[in-house]
Each structure stands twice: as structure tokens, then as C-alpha cells.
Amino acid sequence: MIWLTWRQHRGQILTALVTLLLLGVLLFVTGRQMRDAFTSGGLEACLDTLGTPAFVPIDGSSNCVDLGESFAARFFNLRLLALVGFLVLPLLLGMFLGAPVVARELEQGTHQLVWTQGVGRRRWAVTKFALLALSVLVLGSIFAVAVDLWFEPLNRATGQRFTWLIFDQQGIVVAGYAVFAFALGVLAGAMTRRTLRAMGVTLLLFCIVRFGVAVWVRPELAPRAERSYPVVATTMPNRLVGDWIIGGGGPGVGGIYDAEGREVQGGQSFCEPDRAQECVDEYGEGAMNFEIYQPADRYWRFQVLEALVFAGLSFVLLGAAVWWIRRRLT
Amino acid sequence: MTSVLETSALGKRYRRTWALRDCSLAIPRGCIVGLVGPNGAGKTTLLSLAVGLLRPTSGSIRVLGSDPGRDPTVLARTGFVAQDTPLYRDFTADDLFAMGRRLNERWDDGLAQARLARLAIPNDRPVGSLSGGQRAQVALALVLAKRPDLLILDEPVASLDPLARREFLQLLMSSVAEQGLTVVLSSHLLGDLERLCDHLIVLSASRVQVLGPVDELLAEHRLLVGGRGAPEPTDATVVRRSDTERQTTLLVRTSGPIVDPRWSAHPVSLEDMVLAYLQDPAAGALPGPRPLEASG
Is B87 in CB contact (< 8 Å) with chain A? Predict the structure, then answer.
């Protein structure tokens, strides 16, 4: 079975590898460009000096935000391009390897050949799915490592690694998404019996599930942290640490509160002590900014948890595919 | 005598339509069974049930003593070539044999290679680039190398030209003689079956219509010619009747000689007999000529 799986799918796996290699070259070239700019523009030195304090002076004298912003702006187009590519590639990888696994056998009638050999259908399915899922996992992980290296200067420059859509492009969740797309493709292929239809179904369901998990499940993976800090202050939270600010306004999700703890309005505001009166006029004496967030040091915990969510889903889908092949394709 | 394949009230339904129903038969070891019937009669369904690709909706099927849908060891002992001989088209014959070796406990690589060498079929080219006849031969070599006890072939020669067809069937028969296996073969081509098979199953409208050893079936059936309006003989079952202005022709099934002097009896060919049954699915369908064996 191992030999057969390799013989049947080596073309796809090698194609994926070559594509990854080409992509790797692309990432290496653009990544080095970014790294050079990161170092030569003084941003790296600034961030190294800054360290990772929770609060930084509001006056901008040492918080590297301006340097970070101009760095991010310089690579805006590249980031946009990467966003599309990095979000779509794990889906494509899984879908192209997964959808044909069963569907193509059914389309070409070769299931009649392979399911009448001396190995049972269950062993055929389990071995094949396991080996290919593992291949997707390995390919996805290679991709994830390359992307992580590429993203490093950007992550440090913007502090946005934990936020929506940026989180989704890097780390081990990427491998999880690829395996999930694979499992979805396998099951859809077994159920629709057509490779192309299976790809369509995979595309649709993948987007729905990914969206649902990102919006409704991810923020609940750990209890949210809260903090408040005065409106009239010389320091503000260090945005480059990489916290995920979930709530900046609205009831229960943070905003500006007066001294009695009533919400005045959403968002945040700061006044340095020499202009304190402006803030006092607007929000009253002793107003506080209140925010709900996930601290930056939980990033890997979230990555692991979300990857596990998708690993679990993949396991269930592949199990369902084995069941379907044994019970329903008869 | 032990049955290699045995079904009892076997039925298969797809959604609302029955593809096969009430099929009870037993195939003894060592015989070559021809399975005929019009398109959609249930031939492929019956054969797919026999190799576990389909599971019965009702009744039961046993192949080599166990249920082919549950017991993969039965599949290792069964050689199956599906309609249009599906093979992985980008595999070479060597690749396919490597697959067979790995997926089956019994495997005779020498036999597979020798067959291809004898036919001068290249074993290092993708089978997709071979001719239809060569592909069918590769498929046959692939199942024969399993050293099966039972060989099931679904329309193996349907897509082949006459020469390739004859070559294929000759080689099939010589291997059958060498290996002493049981064969179930479906075909539209009654002429082929007449030469090859010693047993016959006629399926029509998803039911078994005729079942029995070919020589007995031929001995039991007679073509009777008599004057128009002559009363039908009482000691024979009329399968089919055709009238012209002057005479009446009957195809009858009988256990003894026809004694009625108003009828002259002639032997019937297998093809005429089968066609007579197929033209009238109701004729003699139930009960058909007695089953190969009383099935339990």
C-alpha cells in the first residue's frame, strides 16, 4: 500500500515540492530585501533598544512606531500580494492532493481494480489517507517555516502577528489548514464521486469553516485579558509587543470609562499632562481607557490550539470518508 | 460437489429500481459459466456483488465459502476484470504487477511476465499508451498472476476487434485449462460463449431466466415445426411461438422426445435458444430450467 500510494501520487507530491521550492526562492529574495531594509533603516536597532516593555512614552521619542509604519508602508504591495497567496496556498495544497484521492478512482473505474485486490477497502483507505495526510502535513510545515522566516521583520515592525488575517498566514495553523483542506477534499470526493465537484465543495466549505473558526472560535480559545490605563498619562501600551486587541469600543468590549466606571465612548484617547484639560473636559476627571485583549505571549498557545481544532476536524472528516467508502459506495 | 459461488434470493436495489432480484444459483467448482442478457439486465450488478464491490439489498451471496463484502481474503483468491478493463493508465505493466505483488498474498510474477513476453507486450510503457487488446491482456495477466480460484470477467472482449478477441479468449482458455479455475464470464456475444462455456446463465429484466449446463439445455430444447393451427404438444413447455401463413414454429423445453406426429422436431442452437428467451422475458422465466444445483 505504501508503495502504491507513492507510485500513484508521487507526481502530485513532487509538483507540490517544486512549487514550494520556487515559492521558497521568491520568499528568499523578497525576504532578504525586507531584512536589509529592516536593518539598514535603523528599525531593528530601535526595536532592540526598546525591548518589550508593556508601556511606552506617548511622545513617540523612543517607541519605534514611526519607523515601523514607514517600513510597513514601503512593503505594502508585497504584504497585500503575500496576504492573498499565503491564505490561498494551504487550501490549494490540500485540495489538489485530497479531492482526487477517491474521486479519480471512481471516475476512471479503477476502484474496481484496487478494491478487488487482497487488501480490504478499509486498509486501502486508512493507509492511503494517513500517508497522504502526512505528506500534506510535511509540505504544509515546510511552507509554514518559510513564511515564518519571511514574516519576522514585518511582525516586529507592525506588532500585528496576533491579529486577524495576519495570524492566519503563519505558524503551524497553516499546516493545519492544509491538512483540513485535504481531508475535506477526500470526503467530498468520495461523496460527489467527481474530482471537479469535490474541489468546488472543498473550496466552499473550507472558506465557511475557516471564517467561522477565526471569528467565533479563536477569540474564545483562552479567557480574554483586560487592562485599563489612565487617559491623562505619559505612557501608553506598547503596540509593537504584538498583543491582539479584541475590543476597542462598544459595550463590554472596552472603551473610555469615567471615574465612576460608566462608559463614555468607544475607542481610546490620550492626553499628555500638559494638555490634560482637554481630556478632563471631554471625559471628566479620572477617566480610564479600558481594553480587552489577548496578550502577545499567548500567540503560540493560540496557534497550537487552533491547529488542534483543524487537526481534530480533519481526523473526523477522514474517518467519515473511510466509513463512507466501506458502507455507502456499495 | 462444492460451490464456488452461491447466491440465495440475492437482490440489489438502486434507490427505487431493482437491478437484480430473487437470484438463486450455485456455480460448481471447475466450470466455465457464461452470463448473458441485454444491457441493464443486471449482469454487472451480479458480478460486482460477487467481488464485494456492491453489497446485497436482500438475500445473500457466498464466494469460496465466505462473504466477499466482508472478507478480503476471498478477494485475494478471486480475479476480477471489470468492464472496459480499468487500469491505472500512467502505470506500466511492471508497475501494475508490483502493485499486485504487494496487495495479494499469492502472486506469481513469473506467470505475469511470461504472458506479456509471449504476447510481445512492452512491460515498461504506460498501459494507457497500449492498444485496447494489449490492455485487456495486461489486465488478464494481472488477475491470473493472483493464481485465483475463481475468475470473474465482465464483458472482457466487448471493446476488442475480432482478432484481439479471439487471441484473448484463446489465452484465457489455455490458462483456465492450466490452472483449473472456475470462470464466470459475461458477454453479449453468444457465439463466443457457445464455444467457451459449459454452463449458461441468462439474465433478463433483473431476473435469472435460464440456468443450466449448456449440453443439458440444448438437449432439453427443441424447435418444432408443424402445420398452422396444430395443437401445442402437452408434454412440452412452449418458450416461443411464431406463426406464418402455412406453418407454426415452436421453441419448446421438454424432458422427453416429442411423440406427436403433427410436429417435426429439430435440434436448436444455443444462440436461437437464448434469443428466444430474451425476446420474451416472461417466457419460461419462472420457473426456468432447473438450477445448476438445488441452492440452499
Answer: yes
CA gap B242, B264 in Å, rounded = 15
Contact present, A294 and A222 (Cβ < 8 Å): yes
Q: Which of residues 143-162 of B touch A (CB under 8 A)?
A: 146
The pLDDT tens digits of the residues spanning B215-244 come to 888 888 888 998 887 888 877 888 888 888
Instruction: Give A119's contacts in chain B (Cβ within 8 Å).
Output: 72, 103
Is any Cβ of chain A less than 8 angstroms from the Cβ of B219? no
DSSP-derived pairing of the beta strands B32-36 and B78-81: unpaired
ipTM of the complex: 0.88
For an interface test with A, which of B88, B94, B95, B155 has the most A Cβ atoms less than 10 Å from its Cβ?
Answer: B88
The 10s digit of each residue's pLDDT in B54-74 is 999 999 999 999 999 888 889
Query: Do the beta carbons of residue B240 and residue B251 sit within 8 Å?
Result: yes
> For residue A12, how far is the Cα from the chain centroid?
25
Place of cell 460527489: A192
End-to-end CA distance of chain B: 13
Is residue B61 a contact partner of residue B7, using CB atoms and an 8 Å limit? Answer: yes
B69 inside 8 A of chain A by CB: yes
Q: What is the pLDDT of residues A200-240, one digit of tens each?
A: 999 999 999 999 999 899 988 999 888 888 888 888 888 88
Q: Is residue B159 pLDDT above 80, yes or no?
A: no
